[in-house]
Amino acid sequence: MLVAIGKGIELDVDVTRFNSEVHNHIARTGLRNLLMDAHASATAKNDPEGYVKKSRDLAEKKLASLYAGIVRAQSVGGVAKPTDPVGAVIMRLARMAIQKERASDIAAAPKEQRLALINRLAAEYAQSHDMALRPRAEKIVALENVEAEPLPVKKAGPAAKGKKAA
Question: What is the dihedral of CA 111, 75, 141, 71, to 10 degrees?
Fold first, then answer.
């Protein structure tokens, strides 16, 4: 497995060489980091009474999405790259669907909370409609990955030269 660790460094890791204790440690650490990232936006500053419950809800939703096979993106070198192109398309389709279906709810939300609301609703929609969205997403990914032949370039004629003098 090729692992990007930053600064342009990639290491080829043979995970089969890890014993069970090391493997479990890596899984615990990785899962802890993913779940911590998922609930980091719920802070006492934004919601003094409900931030712990919101944190738990966000972490549980992240875990549920992982169980469902939804891996969002991994960031390497600052640019996010989808790890699952079909999952990324499913999320794109889910966002479009909820923006149509829940437009009034989204518009009613405070401006600074709209993106989070869209992302939450899209994740819920993607999870509940995965069976319907997946075949379409697979077709889209297949079409996007087809290497099309470049179109022939037309040769430009002489350039137009402004208005003619009368």
Answer: -80
